[in-house]
Amino acid sequence: MVSSSDLKQIAPCEWEIPDSYRSDMRVPVRLFASPELLNEVTRDKSLEQAVNAACLVGLVGPVLVMPDMHQGYGFPIGGVAATRYPQGVVSPGGIGYDINCGVRLLASQIPYQEARSRLDDLATALNSFCPSGVGTGGHLKLSEAQVKEICRKGSSWAKSAGYAAEQDLRRTEDRGQLPGADPRHLSPRALKRGSGQVGSLGSGNHFLEIDLVEKIFDDQAARAMGLEKDSLALQIHCGSRGLGHQVCSDYVKSMQSAVIRYGLVLPDRELVCAPMDSPEGEAYLSAMACAANYAFANRQVLSFHAREAFESVLAGKVANWDLNLVYDVAHNIGKIETHRISGEKVQVCVHRKGATRAFGPGASELPPEYQSIGQPVLVPGSMGTSSWVLRGTEQAMQRSLGSCCHGAGRVMSRSQAKKRIWGEDLRRDLEGRGITIKAGSLAGLAEEAPEAYKDVDQVVETVIQAGIAAPVARLKPLVVING
Amino acid sequence: MNTLTRGFEEVAHTADLEIKAWGENLNDLFISAVEGMFHLSGIDEYEEGISDVNETIALEAMDYEGLLILFLEELLYRLTEDYMLFKVRKLKVSDNFSLKANLRGIQIKSYQRDIKAVTYHRLNIQETDQGYFVNIVFDI
């Protein structure tokens, strides 16, 4: 077990586990954490998991861990690792089962004061237009050919089917369409699971949330993003549903033998991987792109339904009920990117497992309106607490592979949370604070209680202090729909 | 644990769900793991015998751990796609890393929790004097 004495402080909020810590490490581990958060991360196995990730073949630069880190499986949640493309490995478990789980933020010009009396109606409408909960699929029933089309085209499919506008694509990572997606690399089961779930939220920690833009820290950036103080905004958090889970399961299974074939020795079988230029590696990257595109399309169709819900409640009641996409970020994904690492410009596959891309100003991947401010970085808080809109910085490009935290990060297991917190009490408490809750189940609600998570403000303070993101706005929750 | 019974218990995990399963032999260990997984799905209770089915499945893998994951994944897929809860009637794990299982499938109306996947994280079936043990982490 890694303890705090194994960590070397290299900056006020940056710590290193040297590669001498364990003989099978190929690179060091660097973590971003305030001294307070550091105490919490040494309590579970997240650092040991980061050390395991540092044993992968072809790593370039240290394995990074964000301050919202916590124990996962294989990689820690909050882990970022770059492997040289194409000789290095790609690890499906290092990206996760919910491929391209991500979050998007939509801004509005709806004044809170005018919408205040209609928040209950908005909650009911959102709940009815946007399917959510265990085992609940979307409104669309798709043929296998349509699922394949979605996997190839992602948000571009959504645009041609009338669910997206050009601005939605421009403000989504990779325009919502990862290249190289070939559905021939998907199993029949993956395709079958994709037939009924586009436009559905799922369950667990997936949510829809109406927020109030409570405070602006950076006027120029907020203006570019369309965020106005005291207006409403909407967040959508979900991923690639059963199709993505099946892709990851299929490839974690098939790579169990690939590691033997390629002579790769690993400290944990969940880290199985294959060189990206091997048939197995190429097939996985292509299948992962399919699942990522499915997730982009999923969030886009949910946005369409959310816009319908807002229109049904607010049309004729407020001047402008449009919801404009600020940005859509993936936080479980592998991306082929070019970074300058140890002075060398190198093409790598950046595994982000519970971490958000956070490119700084001038990155060619950003749309024109974000060129001067950097990429919007969305950090949802736990239920009932603030969420943050940040922006990527030049420092992030130099120190964190253009990456940042993705949320608050859990500290308490689900069973502990359920034992300590009653869903009904939590609902009453949140409603007492003016937050309307719609939840699939009260037990599920208790599992997502704010006490089960770190303080998101501390996490955000850490990344700001470390310089890998800068604050733009803070959002306060008004309506939470928990799958 | 002194008696050679089979069973499972939930183990604390920060974000996902983990069970420890045990059994006198591999057959019992696999049955315990199946029961543990369906327990985590939140379907301990169900209506008896509306449309029960009888199924036999055969699987093979590279090792016992891989076989266990394959078996659990198969039943998880049937749960999420077909809303079927399975009870093991008879199960035989063979030493060539294959299994044959006779199952009773029970149609259910709903379940409480989506399990995204059965992971290989730190998966290691341990044989002790008291029987077989394994910890399994489920992504949820």
Oligomer: heterodimer
Percent range for helical residues of chain A? 25-40%
What does the largest sheet of chain B look like? 5 strands, antiparallel
Q: Residue ranges of chain A: pLDDT <50 for 5 or more in a row?
A: none
The low-confidence runs of chain B, each spanning 5 or more residues with pLDDT under 50, are: none
Counting DSSP E segments of at least 2 residues, the number of strands of chain A comes to: 19
How many helices of chain A? The count is 16
Give the radius of gyration of chain B.
14 Å
Q: What's the mean pLDDT score of chain B?
A: 93
Largest sheet of chain A: 8 strands, mixed
Q: Which percent band covers the strand fraction of chain A?
A: 25-35%
The SS-based structural class of chain A is alpha+beta
Shape of chain A: globular
Please state the overall shape of chain B, judged from the principal axes of the Cα atoms. Answer: globular
What does this molecule look like?
The complex is a heterodimer of chains A (483) and B (140). Chain A is α+β, with helices and mostly antiparallel strands. Chain A has 16 helices and 19 strands. In chain A, strand 4 and strand 5 form a beta hairpin. The longest helix of chain A is centred in the middle third of the chain and has 36 residues. Chain A is globular, with a radius of gyration of 21 Å. Chain A starts with 7 loop residues before the first strand and ends with a strand. The mean pLDDT of chain A is 96. Chain B is α+β, with helices and mostly antiparallel strands. Helix content of chain B is 24%, strand content 39%. Chain B is built from two helices and eight strands. In chain B, strands 1, 2, 6, 7 and 8 form a five-stranded antiparallel beta sheet that branches. Chain B has a three-stranded antiparallel beta sheet with strand order 3-5-4, covered by helices on one side. In chain B, strand 1 and strand 2 form a beta hairpin. In chain B, helix 1 packs parallel to helix 2. Chain B is globular and about 40 Å long. The interface between A and B is large, with 43 and 33 residues.
